[in-house]
Amino acid sequence: MTDIERLVHEEWTAVEADRRITISDPADGCELFAVPVARPASVDAAVGAARSAAAAWARTPAGERAAAVHRAADAVAARADDLARLTTLEMGKPLGDARGGVDAGVGTLRQYAELGPVHRGRSLNGEVGATDLMVYESRGVVAAITPWNDPVAVSCGLIGAALVTGNTVVYKPSERTPATGWLLARILSEHLPEGVLTLLLGDGEVGARLVDAGVDVVAHVGSTATGRAIARACAGTGTKVLLENGGNDPLIIDADVDPEWAAEQAALGAFANAGQICVAVERIYVHEAVAEPFLAALVARARSLRTGPGTEPATQLGPLVDRRMRDHVHGHVAQAVAAGAKLLTGGEVPEGPGSFYPATVLTHCTDDMAVLREETFGPVAPVAVVATFDEALERACQGEYGLAASVLTRDLAHATRAWRELPVGTVKVNNVFGGAPGGAAHPRRASGQGYGYGPELLDEMTQTKVVHLATPPS
């Protein structure tokens, strides 16, 4: 086990801490790092440093801020293999997927570096003889609280958008992937003035202290429970809140699609990153006309996945992030089976070290089961067979979440009805993943609030001011 301070460079000084969190490899249970948990005074000091640097960074020309973020993106790209390996060690995803997340983060940093200087206000039509403007200004200090399931990509998005719009950032990565967050922050901060990006490591107590420490924006990607706690805290202070939280994303499979192709899409959506994706397929409604061959193909695909440590090149299904997550996932599956669901494959906790869980397919699922009603966040594909497209759409529209949904159909009318009626921020037709890089959606209901991506995130990170310039009388 290695102290995280010496993980990247032996000259790093130790962080003062009263306690530490131990991070274990989810593939074999071996202890990896001892992570120092920030003291309350350290949280206040980080926010104070960010506050002290905020005015100067906001006055820095937008082109200079963008150039700094471009340099930071190049530095992240140069350390992509190191960041990917840390991600895999800490949370288990296959190394290729982890590298893809780093590459996405680099692309996002570059996107915001390009968009920052052209994020401008507009002139307004006022009275003759006067000039009226609407201008964007930075908000101040942004607390970026990020998740473990895609730690580099999400962090780069929030940090990049905040920096190019003139905000300083206090960055708290998930306590499940602190080494990845630590290395990312060190890489980025080398290309920024002192205090513009500060790092805090720790658990939920540190995050709660940060939310209450007088920041101007809290941008959180993570669980709905944590997001709701943040929203309650910020409601009392007036702090701006951006939340992308849990999802319970449905997949509708129409009667006119190729069932084997549909099974490939369902498997990708349910099993990628061991189901630990905010927009993973969490519940499947398949038309009875294609249900039998679809289920056969889905089961075959689930059984064909190669399970193993994420560091092994052949691995297609890595472990869950830890055994606490595995207990949660297996609890949903066991409850469903006890309530009448039929287990077609998987569903058993394997013996041996680590936190592995098999790709699991359930059928005869009903909407009162937790596996269809709540976010499972594991490699589980719960299936409900429906008699009509109307039934599938009605059931897909139910629930408290509103993050994303997918529809597989050859019927344009069905596709149009689905994207219009589904109460979610993102609808994908004939693809469970994908989309243009600039897409920005509002998550709905328990899934959050505010734009989390795209050019619109720059609007969230700024505040507008209307200026009326009139000439004095002669």
Automatic annotation (TrEMBL):
Keywords: Oxidoreductase. Residues 12-467 form the Aldehyde dehydrogenase domain. GO terms for molecular function: oxidoreductase activity, acting on the aldehyde or oxo group of donors, NAD or NADP as acceptor. The keyword Nucleotidyltransferase does not apply. PROSITE patterns: ALDEHYDE_DEHYDR_CYS. Signal peptide: none annotated. InterPro entries: Ald_DH/histidinol_DH, Ald_DH_C, Ald_DH_CS_CYS, Ald_DH_N, Aldehyde_DH_dom. Transmembrane segments: none annotated. Belongs to the aldehyde dehydrogenase family. This is Succinate-semialdehyde dehydrogenase. It comes from Planosporangium mesophilum.
